[in-house]
From TrEMBL:
Name the UniProt record assigns to this protein: DUF2092 domain-containing protein
Residues of the signal peptide: 1-21
Keyword Signal listed: yes
Provenance organism: Methylobacterium oxalidis
Keywords: Signal
Domain of life: Bacteria
Xref: InterPro entries: DUF2092, LolA/LolB/LppX
Lineage: Bacteria, Pseudomonadati, Pseudomonadota, Alphaproteobacteria, Hyphomicrobiales
Length: 258
């Protein structure tokens, strides 16, 4: 915890009781201690480093275990858990298979089309491939009604997503308890959210991310734990096949997805 009043300023406000008033008046006040920056350079460097490590990978695969906080009508937080297996090949291949407490779904970008398949309902929505991977992720939000907790790590510029609009960032310290590796822990915030991320010391890949939406009713929280990281795996085109969706009922993507 940082003191509410800088120690240097507090010392300047305490006057020696034995000093005469005139002598006290003659003494120039000590300048206040310099306040620590709201966005610490070391914290910013770590956020940029994890963004750079993700952006440099030509392909990625990982597992994400996400916990979503959904405030109920009574104000009680209810937590839902989802697990996603993610395979990415830049610039235009992505497969995300998600199951958990809600309906499972698959998002597949094969370079020509974007497909959202719901296995239990046997429905499939297909649209022409968006112009970028970022646009494909936005289309999923429009179709699924929610964003994946790990979406920022898939963007073309993850560092920008992590650092844009920051109002506060500082290094908490190091941990050896997350992901089985040593991690740097960074807390950061913008106008609408507060977050904490655990970043691998050796590979700079994220191992855990917690986010509190401070601007939303009930201040809902989301957490995602990353595991099974593989950087630059050889992902063949068949990984992104949609053949298993044949025979499913066709449904449209919402207009907002385009």
């Amino acid at each position: 915890m940082r003191p509410l009043i800088p120690l240097g300023l507090l010392a300047a406000l305490v006057l020696p009781l034995s000093a005469p008033a005139a002598e006290t008046a003659a003494q120039p006040a000590s300048p206040p201690a310099q306040a620590a920056p709201s966005v610490e350079p070391a914290a910013l460097a770590l956020l940029k480093a994890t963004g750079a490590a993700l952006a440099a990978a030509r392909s990625l695969s990982f597992t994400a275990l996400a916990v979503h906080d959904v405030p109920s009508a009574e104000g009680q937080s209810v937590f839902y858990v989802g697990r996603s297996r993610v395979e990415l090949r830049r610039p235009d291949r992505l497969r995300v298979v998600t199951d958990g407490d809600g309906p499972s779904r698959e998002l597949i970008l094969d370079g020509r089309s974007l497909t959202l398949f719901r296995p239990e309902a046997r429905t499939v929505a297909t649209m022409p491939a968006p112009a970028s991977l970022d646009a494909a992720l936005r289309a999923e939000v429009a179709a699924a009604g929610e964003t994946q907790a790990f979406a920022d790590v898939l963007l073309a510029n993850p560092a920008q997503a992590l650092t844009e609009g920051l109002t506060r960032a500082f290094v908490v310290g190091r941990s050896r308890l997350v992901g089985g590796v040593e991690t740097d822990v960074v807390a950061f915030a913008d106008r609408d959210a507060q977050a904490q991320i655990w970043i691998g010391v050796q590979d700079r890949l994220p191992r855990q991310l917690w986010v509190t939406e401070t601007g939303a009713p009930g201040r809902p929280r989301d957490a995602v734990t990353f595991s099974d990281w593989v950087v630059d795996p050889p992902l063949e085109d068949r990984v992104f096949s949609t053949a298993h969706t044949e025979g499913a009922q066709a449904v449209p993507f919402p207009a907002s997805a385009y």
